[in-house]
Amino acid sequence: MGSVTPEDLRHHDAPRVLSVSRDDGHRFGKPVVSEIRLIAGWGVEGDAHAGTTVQHRSRVARDPSQPNLRQVHLIHAELFGEVADHGFTVRPGEMGENIATTGLDLLSLPVGTVLHLGDTAKVELTGLRNPCDQINGLAPGLMKEMVSRAADGTVVRKAGVMSIVIAGGVVRPGDAIVVELPAGEPVALQPV
User: Fewest Cβ atoms nearer than 10 Å: which of 21, 29, 92, 182?
Assistant: First the structure.
C-alpha cells in the first residue's frame, strides 16, 4: 500500500497510521516510505535516531550514555490541517516524524501508553517532543504554531510524542492503531 491521504481515512472512526518515514541521516525531515520496520529496544530500522542510547546530536553532546527515550517520533496528522489554517503547508515526514497518525489525540495520552501498530509492533509513549528552532527552517514562523499557552498559562507543545519500541514489526500506512492505557493514575506527557 502506498501513502494514504487524510481524505482516504476521513470515514474511519478507528485510529490509523497515515504515513511512515525514516532517514539514515540526521536531517530535519524524513522521506515518506511504504513501510518501516520497528525493532524492539532499538527503534526504526535504518533510521538515524534508532539505538539504545540517545541519538539526537544535541543530547549526545550533553551525555551520550542517556537511554534513548526518543526511538520513534509520532505526530498527529490533524496538526497539518491546523497549521494549514494559519497559512503553513506541512506534509507527512517534514516534521521529522516516523509515524503520522490520524483519529488519535496523541498529546492527551499519558506516559506509558502502549500503541499497537499493525499486526505486531508496539511502542510505549515516553514523552512529548520538545520542538526546536529547526522547525522555522521548514517555514519561518512555524515554531510559534508548535508551542502555545493554554488558558491557564501552561505551555502546550504540539510537535508530537516520543516512544520506545517494546515489540517489533512492520508498520504501513492504513494500519490500525490500538491504544492500551497504563494501569494506575495517569501521568501527563512531559518533554523528553
Answer: 182
Domain range summary for the chain, segments of one domain joined by +: 6-180
**The length of the chain, given as a count of residues:** 192
Pairing of strands 72-76, 99-102: parallel
Residue 68 and residue 52 in contact, taking contact as beta carbons nearer than 8 Å: yes
Distance CA 169, CA 13 (A): 24
Type of residue found at 119: D
Can you identify the CATH homologous superfamily of domain 6-180? PK beta-barrel domain-like (2.40.33.20)
Question: Distance between CA atoms of 175 and 129, rounded to whole angstroms?
Answer: 23
The β-bridge relationship of strands 43-44 and 121-128 is unpaired
> What is the bridge-based pairing of β-strands 177-180 and 114-117?
antiparallel
